[in-house]
Amino acid sequence: KAPGMTTSFTRRDGLLTRWFGGEAFVITPHAIENLTPMAALVWRLIGTGSTEGAICGKLQQLYPDVEPARIGEDVRRLLRHFESRKLLQRVSAPAARKAARRRSTRH
Q1: Which among 2, 101, 107 has a CA at the least distance from the CA of 47?
Q2: Do residues 63 and 71 touch, judged by C-beta distance below 8 A?
Q3: H-type helices in 2-107, by residue range?
Q4: pTM for the full model?
Q5: DSSP code string of 64-93
Q6: N or C: which end of the chain has fewer CB within 10 A?
Q7: pLDDT one-digit tens code per residue, 63-101
Q8: Residues forming beta bridges with residue 27, ordered by sequence position
């Protein structure tokens, strides 16, 4: 099933994100994912418990010259990739807010 504009996403528990020299790496128990700059930006936005629509809106603000349809396609592709690699999960909006609060207190 394709993600919806109102579906909330959050990172799966047990993943580590590390930043080295401007590059982002997601570390799972089984692999290390090296993220492209755009994937890293989307990954940051997912970390706050975001919807596809919110991610697209933020990227449209950052890249106003890019067609919204192109941004939407790229975000959907990245979300599918993250899901296929079991890096994120779909959650209800209240659960996404709770997960984001829990992560923001882990420093």
Answers
A1: 101
A2: yes
A3: 37-47, 52-62, 68-84, 93-104
A4: 0.77
A5: TTS-HHHHHHHHHHHHHHHHHTT-EEEE-H
A6: C
A7: 999 999 999 999 999 999 999 999 998 887 555 555 556
A8: 16, 32
